[in-house]
Structure formats: C-alpha cells, structure tokens
Amino acid sequence: MLVSFADFLIELGVPSAGFRSLDDLFEQFPQITEGVSTITVQTPEGQKTIRPAYERAHRYFIWEHKRLDYPRSQPYATGKWADYRHWLDAMVTFSLVDLQRIADEARAFVLEQLTPHVFNPLDVRVEPPIFLMLLRDFPFAQRAVRETTGASFQAAVFAYIRADAPHLQVEARKVRTGSAREAGIGDIDAWEGDQLVISAEVKHYVVTGAIQEEIEFFVSEVRQRGALGLVIAEDFRDGARETIEALGITPLSRADLVRIVALWDPLKQRAALNAFQWVVVHREQNGPLIERVARFLADVGYRATNLAPNQPT
Questions:
Q1: How far apart are CA 32 and CA 295, in angstroms?
Q2: Cα–Cα distance between 306 and 298 in angstroms, integer?
Q3: Nearest one of 71, 67, 73, 58 to 114, comparing CA atoms
Q4: What are phi and psi of 16, to 5 degrees?
Q5: Digit-coded pLDDT (tens) for 214-230
Q6: pTM of the prediction?
Q7: By the 8 A CB rule, do 67 and 116 touch?
Q8: E strand or H helix at 43
Q9: What are the chain's domains?
Q10: Contact 29, 12 (CB under 8 A)
C-alpha cells in the first residue's frame, strides 16, 4: 500500500499543493464514498482512485520481479486503505523527492523480503517425441540378414496399442507364427480379464482392395466378441480402406498412427518406446533387429547403442 499511496499522491500533484493533512486534500479533491470501497476522489478530469497505482505495484512485484508470494487480493487490500490514514496524513505533507524515496525504499524492502521464483529453462529436461520419431523415421521397410520380415512394424503396432490402452492386458505374437497357432484372434490382442477389447491385424505392406478374404476369420471373431477390430498397415489403396470399414473394422495406416501419436505427451511416447523395445528384445528375440533399433536410437541422439549381454546376436 505504501508504494501505491506515494504514486497516487504524486499523480494528484500533492507535493506542490501545501496540504497539512488528508482532510486538506479532500477539500481540494472531494472524497467519493458512494459505491466505492477504496480511496476515491473527484478531480477536474474525473474520478481518481488508488486502484491503478496498486495494480502497477502488483504487476511490478509479481510479474516483473517474480515475487509470487506477494498478496494478490487487490480489492481487499485497497478496500482497507482507511487503516493507513495516519500514513496519508503524513505523506500529503511530503515533497516529491520524499515520496519518490519512500516508494523506492518500499519496493527495495519487499524485493529483499520475498524470494524470487524464477523459472530457468535450463533446469528442464525436454524429452523428444521419441515414438513419433520412430514411427515416422525408422526404416521399417529395410531388413537385416536373419531379421524376420515385418517384425519391426508389428512391434511398433504393439507399442502403440500398449501405450494407448495401459488398462488392458496386451498380447504380442511373434511375427509369422499365426494368431491361430497361438490361440489368438489377431496379431495383437488386448484383453480386460477374459474379454477381448481390441484386436489388430498387422499388414506391413500397402493393402489393396482384395483384402476381404484374407481377414474374413479375423472379422468374424472380432464381431462375435464385440471387440474393436483394427487393420493396421503401411497404407491402403484401391478401395481397401472403404472395404475394411464396410466390414465394421477400423483401418489405420502408418500415416494415421503418426497423426495420432503426434498428440501424445513425452511420457506416453517413452512408454510406447519401452513397449516397442520389450517386444523386439523379449518376444521377437531377433539380434539383427535389436541392433538396428539400438543404432536408430543412437543416430537420433536418444541413447547410445548398448546391447545387453543376454540379447541374441
């Protein structure tokens, strides 16, 4: 309030007016009491209140100097001005230099007493959207010697479902074992207890219109269980997307996944990467693929290539 009082009086031209008390000020600038709670006077230019001066002090301490513990209740504070009338009785007699000095000393005192809360961007560890980077940039189409075709893409689809549905138990099958051989519905199944909730068929190629017979068993099983069925592929052409949708199944291309994952926060992205690595290392257990993944992560600066001793090579 002291800073606000000083600024308020300076703006009114009080230092050159020769006032001896607040009542003298009210004789020249009549006090307005109706409909207001703070000190308000009538000037030739109109009503003037202490509130703008208090708002400036509020902005000075909180926003400019980051004293976030400074009181924020402006209406309450300015409404209690009468508690400081003895200050005003004295301050109306001060010179301009005295009022400026008081305001400066009051500001310095508050800044000294309150700790600044300064945000340092250097203290923040910013994680890259690593799963988005993987979906967008990993060379899924490439395959090392002894690497199973489609294993990397199926691992990415598993990671997507696992991160997007952490409340479900997600099963990943090894590529090319066949869901029927492992008593599954799709290549990837997500369960709540004994109820199938999501099932995905993974096609690491561009699916064309002649897809209906290939997924006939999958569609039937998903429908019977009332589950969400997905066909996730590199892309869809020649009416394949429309054919799949007509069967009550949702088609998702890699570009679709990229658009969805772009909205994920860094922690969810990291969870997806962890799921991807788990499948690659512990489910597929394919040394060349493990090495390719580790090299990709090192190349994008996420982590250095480091194969555990018990990983197959």
A1: 76
A2: 9
A3: 67
A4: -100, 5
A5: 999 999 999 999 999 99
A6: 0.68
A7: yes
A8: strand 40-43
A9: 2-113 (no CATH), 130-299 (3.40.1350.10)
A10: yes
